[in-house]
Predict the structure.
Amino acid sequence: MGKVYNISKNVGLGLLVLGVSAAVTIIGLSIAYDKQRAKTQGKPGDEADTGSTSIPPTTPFTPREPWDYYRLPDSLVPLTYNVTLWPRLKPNADNMYIFTGHSSVVFRCKKETDLILIHANKLNFTMYGGNHAKLSGQGEAAAPAIRSTWLVVRTQYLVVQLSSKLAVGKSYELYTEFRGELADDLEGFYRSEYMDDGVKKVVATSQMQATYARKAFPCFDEPAMKANFSVTIIHERGTVALSNGKEIDSSDSIRDNVQVTVTAFEPTPKMSTYILAFVVCEFGYIQSNDSNLLIRIWARKKALNDGQGNYALNVTGPILQFYERYYNATYPLSKSDQIALPDFNAGAMENWGLVTYRETALLYDSNLSSTGNKERVATVISHELAHMWFGNLVTLQWWNDLWLNEGFASYVEYLGVDFVEPTWNIKDYIILYDVQKVFAIDALASSHPLSRKEEEVNTPAEISEMFNTISYNKGAAVLRMLSEFLSEPVFAKGLSVGNSNTKKHYFHLLCGPSELNQESDMGKVYNISKNVGLGLLVLGVSAAVTIIGLSIAYDKQRAKTQGKPGDEADTGSTSIPPTTPFTPREPWDYYRLPDSLVPLTYNVTLWPRLKPNADNMYIFTGHSSVVFRCKKETDLILIHANKLNFTMYGGNHAKLSGQGEAAAPAIRSTWLVVRTQYLVVQLSSKLAVGKSYELYTEFRGELADDLEGFYRSEYMDDGVKKVVATSQMQATYARKAFPCFDEPAMKANFSVTIIHERGTVALSNGKEIDSSDSIRDNVQVTVTAFEPTPKMSTYILAFVVCEFGYIQSNDSNLLIRIWARKKALNDGQGNYALNVTGPILQFYERYYNATYPLSKSDQIALPDFNAGAMENWGLVTYRETALLYDSNLSSTGNKERVATVISHELAHMWFGNLVTLQWWNDLWLNEGFASYVEYLGVDFVEPTWNIKDYIILYDVQKVFAIDALASSHPLSRKEEEVNTPAEISEMFNTISYNKGAAVLRMLSEFLSEPVFAKGLSSYLNEFAYSNTVHTDLWGHLQQAVADTPDLHIPCSVRDIMNRWTLQMGFPVVTINTRTGGISQKHFLLDPDSKVDRPSQFNYTWFVPIKWMKNGVDQQQYWLLNKTDTHAQMRVSGQEWVLANTNVSGYFRINYDADNWDRLLSQLDTSHQALSVMNRAQIIDDAFNLARAKLIPTTLALRTTQYLSKERDYIPWASALRNLRYYILMFDRTEVYGPLQAYLKKQIEPLFEYFETVTTNWTKTPIEHSDQYNQINAVWMACSMGVESCRKQVSSWFRLWMGNPDHNPIPSDLKATVYCSAIGFGGAEEWDFAWKMFQNASLASEASRLRSALACTKTPWLLNRYLEYTLDPNKIRKQDVTSTIQSIANNVIGMPLAWNFVRAKWSYIFQQYGRGSFSFSNLISGITLRFSTEFELQELKKFKEENLHVGFGSATMALEQAIEKTTANIKWVTENKADVLSWFTEQTVK
Ligand SMILES: [Zn+2]
């Protein structure tokens, strides 16, 4: 094929006018295009082109059957084909262009088989007795009967299953009749149209390379499957038919009552399918009389009459003669046709004997065309004719070597042109056209080698990827270099020597001339210098485009290395592994441990080095022995280990000994498996069941700053850099610290010893029992040993070495310590945590009715920590902001966060740590549980906060928003669906945490708190130190129900809860207060979204409905069916019904219009008759019901009218959260003016209220709710243009700038004031805040400033800030995603952040995407405002382009973003006018 990339026609044409950068774009696009195809075609198991938006199962497709593989088996080889095709150049009755045909292929059986696989794509077959084909034997061979036949769409096969086997050495004939579409898709046998004097003409033509011959007739469609083809074409009288061979017979005939001409062609030499060609047209031709060879140029008659074919005709003969001499081989065919097609995708295609061209590549008008046109014609002809030998006569075995074929033609084309146009000095131009062009690309670190392994190229998409700039231009450049250093004559001689004209050798020669073959290895060792690439960066936009395009190409390859099963993940190797899907065969191929061994005890010693070694690397060393018991006979030990370097013992990674009288088998061999993260120990004989053994290893690992396993964190202490060694094992990182059976059910006792620098302190789960100074490796160290842990999982292990201090409580028998930087402790920042820890632990002891199981409780604040906190048993790790609180500097929110996170983590000490779920699929129960009971713990220590109300804001409403999408997923997954570390990491999502909390709260509400606690307590006591599945909890709660005579629930806990955990989403319950009718329906935010995920319960729930009438609580009602009637809910007059009181159930509620009106009028007259939660619920339900088109948008807006009287936080927060959507959708439109005016009117009374309450902002409000709501008041008042707010904020900030050591801004208002002031200000304010950020000693102050810096309205400041996120010295790694997200929140910053993330996705993902919990927020944050078709397309493109990179924990967020954007577009279209007029009316009044 020529050097033009495959672009869909329409995309390509518009771009051509854009010049250089457009050309570059085209490369990028064609790559993107191919990638898209790669997605639909390349991945195993995908159904191509279904257009479905459902998330496919992540279990990889495992090829099992021969037809599952893209490559043909080697059992059959084709010998001859007889193909007859009849293209119809007029549409049929269905207005479709078709072709019909029949074909027989004679093939020989090389290996016994009862299966015929032959390629066929998009063909409709005539059936014979239910079969797609007929089979007969050749000669004396008898054909087996056909048992069945079928088509495989994915791998494009017609499969013929025989009743018995074919005989080796015998030949058979397979006959088929078929029809296909003569589509205008430029693939296979296709249709092209052009206008001729105002009349539309249709041409049937073909493009078989690389895998489209199978779309014209069934064939063994691989280049090595060479055969002789006898072609017959039936065509309309008056048209001409062409094919590879010379026409040998042409006669008129009648077929199907149509007058036709039947043209037969001489059989081809043995050749590949991809260079077949068929054309039917009304073209004319011109012919050369100079040579013995028939040379014709075919084109539109008018073009030929204008002489446009003359130049091509003139140069063809001489170029062929040149190659005959150069190759020392005569042209192998009896004719050379070249045809100019009006509609042709590639530049040209080297079909043997019938080369097809774009018109611009073959036609030249000496009056009208440019020199460039002429050069192009000569060059393309020369390129294609070079293939007549190199490529067609001798063909490469498989597409992986395509570079040699195309690189070769791209090189020698210059020689051919030079021969016919010696004055052009064309050979010099290779520097421009190939060398420099590809230098630009190949100088990027993202380039790739020329050569690929055969097994890496399988699918049509992978084959199509081979046609790229590297193959053509670099191929040409390195072959030229080869020719240069060998000298031209030697090069030509080698080419010629390897050639042969004897048909017998065609097949053997497929591997190419031996000299060339050796040298083809050059591509593999060709190193690229990174530095060359830098020069490109100055070239501006077009270069940037190139870089993006290229990095896509490169990343596509990496996707293959990392994403697919069977790959070696994380090796950092640039080699491209095979794309054939991985089939687990061996025990170590599976991610889950076998059940043959169970660990009992570990003895682990670790020595982290807090100073870099000679190689400037931070490392740790260690040794570990694990005693395990054999439960099932096995000669294999599989133990997890990741990124550890082992000390070898006689060639083995480990030593094994028996315990007691058990004798250990000898180790036969050991090895590491990178993909599944195992150390494998193969024994010479079997371990004995019931006996125990000890496996000993010594190892070293990197103490990297990767926040995973045993890792390094750094912080500045009085200008001195300090290093902390710390750990994060959840979910699968313990194996990175020492070899272990790293699954939650593999509980054991751990005895830990840490070796550490003198003067540092070492911590672990247990209490330190011995600490003594020692000398190791000539270093003075301290060796600290810890008491053995109780039986526990690896994921809650923790190790820390630091120079922190601690404060300790003396109130209880339990040792409670808060560890942190000494300075922070001296400032009293640990006091609050210390004060609440003891009481919270005591609360849980009573709540669970179980004592705290450990002898100490350490909590430590780490400067660099990925999650908010981690519940390591006895040594909980926190971000500083989640543990430290300064009563002078921190806000109420900070304090609440500290209390909440501590309460969450301590809840896990029992639920999660003492009793652990069997496997990560039940993670929702662990996290949902802690996320629910954390409120109870906080409420115990801070009873005035009414914190339990806040669950509706923090969890219920938050997850409602996500769970109302068709792309949501159920809480619970099956154990077998969660295997790989990536799948485990995906479990840590909002659904698990927030919906988990919401449904467990509902459960507790309908059981009542005492019954819930009772069931919980018996569960924890029964399963202490062991593992459970979620149904174990249901069982214990059921028992608690049974033990409570007054409690009646309509069915079992399990039956009720299954409906909430096994199906996604939640219902909207509608009450008609006129009839008492009540019904439920799956609530979807977008009513038109399609739910692809089936539910065994048909999306109906058992719904516990607490409700009230006129403010009086009524008896709980259970809705068990889709519809029901509850007479008590029928009301009249001024009576109103309010259901789901306090949002105790996880569902939304809708009413008839009258009841809505009565509820609104109640709010208007006396809103305090309803609880704070119910006020919030009315607003939140109304806005979401309006989104779902269940009520009018204006009804939702009406729920905000009473807000001018509302002073409470939760209703305001609910309203602002919903109005925020209106702000986001409209802050770039004309709606924003009236909207701002309305909200200004609503917020002003609240702002004034707080001016009063705070005595002109000099005092702190007393109520927790007020402390929060003043923040809303200031934030909204400033945003909506309340002048006194702007003044107040700016004056505070100016005061602070004037005296940086004295910050006059009230702690609670700091975040808001910083953001508003920086938004009102310019570079001066920004730089001041940046300085304050860098100097901030309190983490939460730093975090406020970091967010506020994103509030500037100045684009260059925002862009500079985005760049800062890539520098860990400016923005800590843990803060990168949230910083980018803050910038995206800003209406000015949003497009800047989006560009930034798109441009750097691969990097950002590699750095932050793995296992980072906050990562999904990045995508959802950036796309919040997306509400135009253009933005949707951008988002989809982003998804396609980065599929290979991956999205990690953002995978679901991305699906949701696409769905949300689609919904936003629709919503804005449908509501903009109403909303604009409603807001306008409100302000006119
Ligand atoms: Zn948790």
